[in-house]
Amino acid sequence: MALAHWTGRSRDPAVVSADIARVLTTELGLPGSPPAQVLAGDSEGVPAGSLLPPRERFSGMPAPTHCFVYVDTQAPRPFELRASVLTGRAIRRSFGLGLLQYAVPLTVPVPGSAALGERHPGRPSAFEGDPEAARRLNFDPELLALADQVSATVAGPDSTHQWKVARLLTVEPRPQGGLLLARTLHRQTPGGWSLGAKEVLTLAARIETALT
């Protein structure tokens, strides 16, 4: 399956949920599939106690949300993922994968909230917000390049049929450590498609190093 797209008998939230768990298992080299829970499309998109924010009512995606797939796992480190599953005439009465939102607890203190700014031609993106947090994060050019890669904002099958979503990549303080929130989109790969989980967790580790 080259695209995260489900038709016919595969157009089933249970199939989508199992496929997302399978892709996560492969990307992260997990010994077993993480638990994946289907949540209704008209819900908040998160269970009680989640670190993820409630779903946005206007996602910027070109089709309605049919449901969400929510993953909360401890391996290879604690993180949560919410994947929106789209449907409707715009994608030919099939299921397609929409926004992916990650929440990754950080093990080091965060001085204050910082968010990755917009891309600008000719120069890399930079973190903005708390001066000390931004200074430490912006000191590492490889961290910034990875943050740019993670925070994809454009999707679509080709250059003619594309849509753009707002960038969201923030580092926030918590009573214990901090929290990385990242919104991204799935990517096509030679063998199918990727959820970008490995890149998100690599970025979290790099952020922890920068803030240590």
TrEMBL record:
It comes from the Bacteria. The lineage of its organism: Bacteria, Bacillati, Actinomycetota, Actinomycetes, Kitasatosporales. It comes from Streptomyces venezuelae (strain ATCC 10712 / CBS 650.69 / DSM 40230 / JCM 4526 / NBRC 13096 / PD 04745). This is Uncharacterized protein.
